[in-house]
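Q: Convert this sequence to structure tokens.
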Amino acid sequence: MKKRKRQRQQNPRASKQTAGARRKRQKRELLKVAIAVLIVVPMIGTALAVFKHNYDITHDLSVIGGGLPTVVQIHDPKCQLCLELRRNASAAIEDMDGSLLFRVADITTPAGRRLQRQHDVPNVTLLLFDGKGELRRVLNGVKSEALLEHTFSRHIERWG
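A:
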């Protein structure tokens, strides 16, 4: 019996050391998580702010008639054809060196729906405005990037 008592007395000491090591390990893990949170959360916040800023710019229809020719896509975000047209139009406009604005009239928003109704056009449509805000051309359906580049270049030549 004495041996068992000694073993029991030694175990609490071993347990205390183990518990201390466990606490240190937990503190280290907590510190790692805290550092990760301090790094990741601001990155997520920054990414969301950039996304919101870009969204606000591309959906700002008030630039129509502001002096630069503008292409506005009548867009339904749930429509695959609209997404394809948007990709093609964005790629075509990248090479225009800022001489042509591209905006999106999202038909799920009041401003986008209003512009769509004003010009009585379906989604998957591009409206080409001159610098004064006059509608000069309407393109319906998905168009290739090459065709859009050509069309946009001609639009700038005529109305830019």
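The first strand starts at residue 70 and ends at 75.
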